[in-house]
Amino acid sequence: MYKVKVYVTLRESVLDPQGIAVKGALHSLSYTEVKDVRIGKFMELVIEESDRDINELVREMCEKLLANPVIEDYRYEIEEAVAR
Amino acid sequence: MKFAVVVFPGSNCDVDMYHAIADELGEEVEYVWHDEDDLDRFDAILLPGGFSYGDYLRSGAIARFSKVMAAVKQAADAGKPVLGVCNGFQILLEAGLLPGAMRRNQGLKFICRPVQLTVENHETMFTSAYEKGEVITIPIAHGEGNYYCDEQTLERLVKNRQIVFRYHGENPNGSLADIAGIVNERGNVLGMMPHPERAVDALLGSADGLKLFRSIVNYWRETHVVTA
Predict the structure, then answer these.
(1) How far is it, in rounded angstroms, from Cα B134 to Cα B215?
(2) For residue B206, which of A69, B107, B137, B220 is within the disulfide window of CB 3.0 to 4.6 Å?
(3) Would you kindly state where each structural domain of chain A is located, as residue ranges?
(4) Does A25 lie at the interface with B, CB-CB under 8 angstroms?
């Protein structure tokens, strides 16, 4: 069993309206050190071992469904989890 | 002429769409549930607004994998008119039937009010009943209508006259180049954020949307009805 953590964020070139609003809020709380905020999604997948290569499988899922490659980037971490 | 209104779990403008076609336009129309896989009996396909699959993950991201979407793609490939409004537009983008993607509105708020649009291209099968450059009033109702595409795609959209509607005056959601609606290269798939089906009777505040549906019927008659 694998535990996979997937992070999806808007691409650098795409304006993130939520991130800008949150940055503004942090500034109004006087955290003026904050230069940029990007908001994204965090997903946790539990995947059974199969014939498929786990990296290949996760990339495929990210590109097909979990992220929209037109506006989003993704990255992931794979942890080998012990069956409960 | 026979229209299909595709219904996904979470669609909520399907009844308005049906009403516009059946009662205002006076054409045949039928609801089609998302698990149907055959749309051959229809001449035009309408994807209504709403919150298909609760907008989970991204608007339209899950609906695009429903069974009916393969049939919608077939209809599009066959050159039939396909119209996606609001969530329907988002689904067409996710399905790759139109280029680009939607971001949250610039002001982060869900906006529901009438807006003015310029008809940028009145020479499509969806807009032939409008005058060149006509300014029309159609309501919007969305939280994610901030259209985005890369520069090359935008150049292509402009060059091929694929931008059909732009926001006139104020841009409510921050969309790139004030885009409110685009067609595919072939010109038979239109996606738009404003709701023409909510503007089909002066009693509702505007009847400007009716011409869009009339254009589709005119196009169909010109190509299918042989005069004796």
Answers:
(1) 14
(2) B137
(3) 2-14+40-80
(4) no
The residues of B that are catalytic are: 86, 195, 197
Give me the numbers of helices (H) and strands (E) for chain B, helices first please.
5, 11
A6 to chain B, minimum CA–CA distance in Å?
Answer: 13
- Give the three-class secondary structure for B173: coil
- ipTM entry: 0.83
User: Which residues in chain A have their CB less than 8 angstroms from residue B107's CB?
Assistant: 17
For chain A, the straight-line distance linking the first and the last C-alpha, in angstroms and rounded, comes to 10
In whole angstroms, give the CA distance from residue A59 to residue A66.
Answer: 9
Minimum-distance CB partner of A14 among B65, B103, B106: B103
CA distance A5 to B101: 24
Question: Per CATH, which fold does A2-14+40-80 belong to?
Answer: Mth169; Chain: A , (3.30.1280)
pLDDT tops 70 at residue B213: yes
- Cβ-Cβ contacts under 8 Å, B89 against chain A: none
A46 touching B, CB under 8 A?
no
CATH value of B2-224 in 3.40.50.880, 3.70.10.10, 3.40.50.2300, 3.40.50.2000: 3.40.50.880
Tens-digit pLDDT profile for residues B4-58: 999 999 999 999 999 999 999 999 999 999 999 999 999 999 999 999 999 999 9
Chain B: closest CA distance from residue A53 (Å): 24
| Chain A interface includes B15 (CB < 8 A) | no
Concatenated DSSP letters for B117-139? Answer: EEES---STTTTTSPTT-EEEEE
